[in-house]
Amino acid sequence: MRRFTDFFNRYALFIAIVIGAAGFPFFRIFTPALPPLIFLMLFFTFCKVNPLDLRLHVWHGLALLVQMLLAIGSCFLLRAFQPFVPVLQDPAVAESVMLCFLQPTATAAPIIAGRLGGSIQNLTMYTIVCNFAIVLIVPLLFPYIHPVDAFSFSVAAWIILKKVGGLLVGPFILAWAIRLIYDALQRRKGSTKRFYLPRTWAQVPFYLWATTIVILMGDIVHTLVYGTYDLWAAVVICIGAAGACLMQFCLGRRIGFRFPASSHGTDYHDVVINPDTAPTTPSGISRITAGQAMGQKNTTLAIWMAQTYLFPLAALGPAAYMIVQNFFIARQLRVAARGR
């Protein structure tokens, strides 16, 4: 059983992709379940972190600014070249590449950063800041990029704000409300116990993530099989997604190296998640942390937003990004394991 669990944990992404693609006529009917699954993923992630361990650092603001500029700039740049490059005339190309930069940091990124020797707390803080930024930017940007005939700009922005905002902010509020209430009740009883997520529950977001990948791949393959689109546009989207992934990992590492912040926090999950990796220099810690912050993305949320508010083909970019980033992360983990 242990051997099977290790195998699944190592190859969960590829297993989920194959299952979702092979059974796409069946799995795509579960797409309405994606928002609750994303909500639960974020909820369990925020349950792992003590708010007292979180601090804002310079690289947080700089990385977020670079990410937003790349998202908006790439979209408008590709649209500017539409009259001159035939393959760019499909509007899904610009929207898809934009999403590759705009998508928020993955909920699993703090765990990976911890295993590589980064700061779980610093990356969790960036994940929260990035998600709040997405809540504010997406409702303003999407109706302008992809106008909806049935709604005015303000009405479309409000609809997106309610759906995306509730999906991202709701888990944050719920998780920390439970923590505060639990700690307050323990203090009233005279106990020093604090809220923490048991180790058996700590892996729940991982399995929820694998489930969402199966459903999303089913929907994407259905779009590719039965949709009408330009094949070359799909190829350009995949190339753009790969370039956006590698670019953001590299930029994040450079930003973290130039603006070090090394806090590891004191909460229990440093022992659970990161038992073998000793802290290095502040620059080294921030280099790893910021690299994962900018490079490792919540592609599940991005694919859902594309399928809900943009052209269906735009979801291909985050899907391709998902595959490239996981190959890159797997390589990082192998290199880190050899160094121990």
Mind sketching the topology for me?
Blueprint: H1 2-22, H2 24-27, H3 34-47, H4 58-80, H5 91-102, H6 109-116, H7 120-145, H8 153-188, H9 199-202, H10 204-226, H11 231-258, H12 269-273, H13 282-295, H14 299-309, H15 316-338
Helix pairs in contact: 1-10, 3-8, 3-10, 4-5, 4-11, 5-11, 5-15, 6-7, 6-13, 7-8, 7-13, 11-13, 11-15, 14-15
Describe the structure.
This protein has 340 residues and is mainly alpha-helical. 74% of the residues lie in helices and 0% in strands. It is built from 15 helices and no strands. Helix 3 (34-47) runs antiparallel to helix 10 and helix 7 (120-145) runs parallel beside helix 13 (282-295).
Number of helices: 15
Structural class: mainly alpha
Compute the CA-based radius of gyration. 20 Å
Report how far the terminal alpha carbons are from each other. 26 Å
Q: Average pLDDT across residues?
A: 80
Order of helical and strand elements: HHHHHHHHHHHHHHH
Strand percent estimate: under 5%
Shape: globular
Number of strands: 0
State the helicity in percent bands: over 70%
Describe the sheet with the most strands. none
Note poorly predicted spans.
264-276
